[in-house]
Amino acid sequence: MGDLRSLPVPDGLEGERLDAALARLFGFSRTRAAELIASGDVLVDGSTPAKSDRVRGGAWLDVTIPPPPAAPMPVAEPVPGMTILYEDDDIVVVNKPIGVAAHPSVGWTGPTVIGGLLGAGHRVSTSGAAERQGIVHRLDANTTGAMVVAKSERAYTALKRAFKERTVDKRYHALVQGHMDPLRGTVDAPIDRHPSGDGRWAVVAGGKDSITHYDTIEAFRAASLLDIKLETGRTHQIRVHMSALRHPCVGDLQYGADPTLAARLGVTRQWLHAVSLAFDHPATGEWVSFTTDYPADLAEALDRADDS
Predict the structure, then answer these.
(1) Can you name the residues that pair with 224 across neighbouring β-strands?
(2) Which segments constitute the Pseudouridine synthase RsuA/RluA-like domain (predicted)?
C-alpha cells in the first residue's frame, strides 16, 4: 500500500509539464515522476494524465507513492582481496578492495564489506538497519581503502556519534586532472542529488553542507596528486567537489573525467583511495590511526602519470 498525497497545484507552477511539477513538489527526479504517471499513480482532478500535460494552478493532485523496495540482506561469503588492518572486541578495520559495497542496497548484487566479514566468521554489531548492521560510514563501491565497522553495540553508538560530530580524521589521496589553483584550499559547497535523477550527486543550492580540504602532494604534467581531508561525509563528496572545481578524479567518467587520460594511465575507475582513518577508540578513548597502501591499479596509474 502506497502513501497517498493530495494537494492543489501551486499557482507558481502554472503551465509547467506535469513530470517537472511533480519533481519540484515532491523532490523526485523527472524520471521517477514519469514512472509514477505511467503506472497510474498520479491523478489530476480525478483523471489519468500524460507526463507532458501542462498543469493548471489550483488543479487537484492525487499522488500515490509506492513504498521503497526492501534492501536485500547481506550474503555471508568471504570477499577476495579484503584484508583486516586491525580487530578487537569492539571494532574491525578493513582495507576495502575495488568493486565492494559497504552493505547491500537495492540494485547492488556484488560483494559487500558486511557479507565479507560475516563470511569470514567475524561478529558485527546488531545495531542499525538489518542490512547494514555495524556500518558507521561508507566508501563507494569503487573507492578503496580504510573503513571501520563496529562489532559491539557501544562501538556502534560511539562511532556514529564521532562521525556525526566530525571528530574522525578521514584522509584520502586523489589523482585529479590538471593543476589546482591554489595548490591548497577548502571547498565549502552544499551537495544533494543531481537534478537529472541519474544517480549522481551535485553541488546544489540548499543541499547538505559539505566541506572538503585539499593539499597538493605532487603535480604531474596532466594531473595532480592531492591529500584530502573530509570534514563532512556526503555521498560522492570528493568526486562531486573535485568535479565542481573542474578537476575531476582521473578515471571518474561519471563526473566528467577525460576518458583519453584515463586510458593512457590505465585507470578504469575513479583514482581515489581512503589512505588513513583515525578516531578515539570507542572502548579505551585512545586515539588510534590506521593507514593503507595504494592498490595495484592506482599505484600503476601513478607511475604512468610520473613518466608522462
Answers:
(1) 176, 219
(2) 90-244
pLDDT in tens, 228-285: 999 998 999 999 999 999 999 999 999 999 999 999 999 999 999 999 999 999 999 9
> Which residue intervals of the chain bear CATH 3.10.290.10?
3-65
Whole-model pTM: value is 0.77
Q: Topology of 69-165 in CATH?
A: Pseudouridine synthase (3.30.2350)
Percent of the chain scoring above 90 in pLDDT = 74
Q: Over the stretch 153-168, which tens digit does the pLDDT of each residue have? A: 999 999 999 999 999 9
Alpha carbon separation from 171 to 48, 60, 218, 308 (Å, rounded): 52, 50, 16, 27
52, burial (CB in 10 Å: exposed 0-12, middle 13-18, buried 19+): exposed
Report domain 3-65's class: alpha beta
Judged by DSSP in three states, 120 sits in coil
Pick the catalytic residue from 19, 90, 140, 192: 140
Gap between the Cα atoms of 50 and 57, Å rounded: 17
Question: Is 3 an annotated catalytic residue?
Answer: no
CATH superfamily for 166-308 is Pseudouridine synthase (3.30.2350.10)
- DSSP letter (8 states) at residue 208: B
For residues 232 and 202, the answer to whether their CB atoms sit within 8 Å is no
Residue span(s) of the chain under CATH 3.30.2350.10 come to 69-165, 166-308
E strands present in the chain: 3-8, 42-44, 60-65, 83-87, 91-96, 144-150, 169-177, 184-188, 191-193, 201-203, 211-219, 223-230, 272-280, 287-291
Whose CA is closest to 286, among 158, 163, 134? 158
Lowest-confidence segment of 68-77, 164-173, 189-198, 234-243 by average pLDDT: 68-77
